[in-house]
């Protein structure tokens, strides 16, 4: 890298026709500049410049070296300019993995907004409950709810979501409405797999209650759908049931009580991210952190 930097300095000296003029352009003392060019000549083993008190002249080797170096420096400058353009307006294919229900019900409008901001990016999304392998599979980022499992990956916190209790008007009319956590023990409660218990908080105290029901499921969408069909109470993030709340199919119950907040992470295989991935993570952190 030092050799490349010295090549760029040599080009500036030749273009400016002197050390003092070149030093003024690049903001470096001409004595330092002269010393760097001397070190470059020593490394190459050939004299590149004839120095006099009034001017410099290229040697034959210096002329050949200048023509080569100028092309290299110009290409490097162009590369940096193109990278700056990518950072300002990223492009390429963004490959991401999302939890199914969270992506469909909550992330979709955010993704549409992001796509409008960056028209140069195209998208390849995988909506799945499985934990994709970011090392062996071609994903730029995975968005996950809950604590990350693989400590070797890079996890960036985007925000957190607090689950609340919801039920359909039909279920509440049939089974009654619980008023305190202990009341949930006599209700049909729909949870992921066999949760066994729910821990609820009201800002002052916490209460863990045993819950159960007729259904054992591993899909949030199915749980939400059964809740709208009067089959029980759910403990879910508001963002996941937003449509059902808006339509009146579900309503919040025991409003002073809530579940333990759940973090949302962006998981990547490396910290060195292309601009498209950086912008996407920054955008989600801004939106989800509100």
Summarize the structure.
The protein has 290 residues and is of the alpha+beta class. The chain has helices spanning 2-16, 19-26, 30-44, 60-88, 100-117, 169-175, 220-228, 242-247, 275-288; strands spanning 49-51, 56-58, 92-98, 121-127, 141-145, 154-161, 163-167, 189-190, 197-201, 206-210, 233-237, 251-252, 258-259, 262-268. It is built from nine helices and 14 strands.
What are the SSEs and their pairings?
Layout: H1 2-16, H2 19-26, H3 30-44, E1 49-51, E2 56-58, H4 60-88, E3 92-98, H5 100-117, E4 121-127, E5 141-145, E6 154-161, E7 163-167, H6 169-175, E8 189-190, E9 197-201, E10 206-210, H7 220-228, E11 233-237, H8 242-247, E12 251-252, E13 258-259, E14 262-268, H9 275-288
Parallel strand pairs: 3-4, 3-5, 8-11
Antiparallel strand pairs: 1-2, 5-14, 6-14, 7-11, 7-12, 9-10, 9-13
Helix pairs in contact: 1-2, 1-3, 1-4, 2-3
Rg for CA atoms: 31 Å
The proportion of residues forming helix, as a percent range, comes to: 40-55%
Query: Which residues sit in consecutive blocks of at least 5 with pLDDT less than 50?
Result: none
| Share in β-strands | 15-25%
How do the strands line up in the largest sheet?
A: 4-3-5-14-6
Query: If you average the pLDDT, what whole number results?
Result: 88
Tell me the structural class: alpha+beta
Compute the number of helices: 9
- How many beta-strand elements? 14
Give the distance, in angstroms, between the N- and C-terminal Cα atoms. Answer: 42 Å
User: How does the major sheet shape up?
Assistant: 5 strands, mixed
- In N-to-C order, the SSE pattern is HHHEEHEHEEEEHEEEHEHEEEH
Shape: rod-shaped
